[in-house]
């Protein structure tokens, strides 16, 4: 049995102001750094992590840097685990985005919104495709008994969980949430390719 632990980064300055981060280099806040430190303590107590895969965006790199004060494991930074590229809308307040551009809002426009790309950005379907492709590759590469830590973002985590729970893309985004530094644990049976969700959006350590 392989264990895969997927976590979200700590709070950022743009999380505080509720702006669309996309690929922006938003730094962690003091609270975010504290959250990550607490996360590192919990991960050390609960798991023996063999390796780390991480998004290569600034906020996840900063998260990993703090986690490495607690965890001794090799790290690979990968673009596949990035948050959605919001293109020209990066930096807009979340509420302003939904009001000014309802065609991208799942609540307003329904499933069609998931296929629409902001100019120079990605659709939700684009993000789901790259995240699930990397997830499947990770499953083929994992070793029995191994524990892998993945450090990523709220969007990719919800898309992964939605896939595993057979949710449509609207429910995947609208009915799931991920707190900063949330822990999601999966048990993978390498022989049967079965995956069990042990916990999701666990923020009890924060």
Report on the structure:
With 206 residues, the protein is α/β, with parallel strands linked by helices. Helices cover 37% and strands 18% of the residues. The chain has 8 helices and 6 strands. It has a 6-stranded mixed beta sheet. Strand 5 (183-189) and strand 6 (194-202) form a beta hairpin. Helix 6 (124-141) crosses helix 7. The longest helix has 18 residues, at 124-141. The two termini are 28 Å apart. The relative contact order is 0.21. The model has no long low-confidence stretch (mean pLDDT 96).
What can be said about this structure in brief?
This protein has helices at 13-16, 30-46, 58-67, 94-100, 106-109, 124-141, 154-164, 169-174; strands at 2-8, 51-55, 75-78, 147-152, 183-189, 194-202. It is an alpha/beta fold.
């Amino acid at each position: 049995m392989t264990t895969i632990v997927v976590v979200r980064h700590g709070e950022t300055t743009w999380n505080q102001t509720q702006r669309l981060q996309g690929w922006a280099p938003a730094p962690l806040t003091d609270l975010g750094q504290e959250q990550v430190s607490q996360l590192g303590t919990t991960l050390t107590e609960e798991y023996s992590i063999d390796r780390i895969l991480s998004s290569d965006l600034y906020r996840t790199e900063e998260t990993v840097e703090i986690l490495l004060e607690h965890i001794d494991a090799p790290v690979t930074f990968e673009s596949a685990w990035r948050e959605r590229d919001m293109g020209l809308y990066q930096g807009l307040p979340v509420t302003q985005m939904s009001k000014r551009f309802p065609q991208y809002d799942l609540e307003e426009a329904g499933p069609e919104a998931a296929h629409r790309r902001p100019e120079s950005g990605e659709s939700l379907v684009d993000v789901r495709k790259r995240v699930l492709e990397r997830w499947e590759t990770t499953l083929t590469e994992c070793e029995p008994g191994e524990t892998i830590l993945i450090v990523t973002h709220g969007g990719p985590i919800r898309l992964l969980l939605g896939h595993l729970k057979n949710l449509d893309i609207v429910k995947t985004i609208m009915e799931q949430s991920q707190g900063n530094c949330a822990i999601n644990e999966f048990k993978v049976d390498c022989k049967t390719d079965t995956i069990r969700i042990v916990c999701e959006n666990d923020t009890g350590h924060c």
